[in-house]
Design goal:
CATH class of the largest domain: Alpha Beta
Distance between the termini: 38 Å
CATH architecture of the largest domain: 2-Layer Sandwich
Shape: globular
Strand order of the largest sheet: 1-2-5-9-8-7-6
Number of strands: 14
Radius of gyration: 18 Å
Strand content: 35-45%
Amino acid sequence: MLTYKINATQSTNSYLKELVKKIGAEEEIVVVTNNQTNGRGQVGAIWQSQVGKSLTFSVFKPGFGMDVSHQFFISMAVSLAVKDVLHLRNVVNLCVKWPNDILSANKKICGILIENILQKSVIAGSVIGIGLNVNENLFENLPKATSMKIVTGKNFSLEEILEDVVKSLDFYFVFLKEKRVGELAELYISALYGKDQVNFFLTPDGLRFHGIIRSIAPNGKLRVEMENKSIKEFDLKEITLIY
């Protein structure tokens, strides 16, 4: 595994994607920075981090022949990997907010952005960006954010957490390589925020509605039971889960 530690970059995902293009990576690469100035989240969202207190890094995982139609299983594996590391450090009330935000007591503690590199219909590699709130004391104007320190009252070593997340990713990627995606899906769905509960959603055109999260389709779409008891599947761009 190659590790690159850089003082500052706009986005570790962007830096790592360019690096992979340059060196033609066939092994795992980690890029970590103390200062990410323009971090990205799902659907163009911006990820804010605090210098020296947040853990912002990206991991390149070489492909192993997975078809692009199964790419959401990678999201499942990454979410569970981060959740496990937090659980072992006594971060309580953990769950995964679809598709891959990690919450503690209904507040966001980690954001994940996965960008897959494709060769036709096969995933040739995955760039996995992770922004984890570790030692922050306060988030101004972000009432839905929290950190490991806020939850536990303790400071943590960023290097140790990085090492453990990388190991946890390796553990869950074994599920993918061995095609044990059914087991992976069960673990992910059991950790899903709002499962079997009434939740409120917002569509891009401003329509609000409520429904019950029942499951996840193999393609990653959220399966929601509507008011008329029918099951409807939604893509990430089609709805926002309000929490």
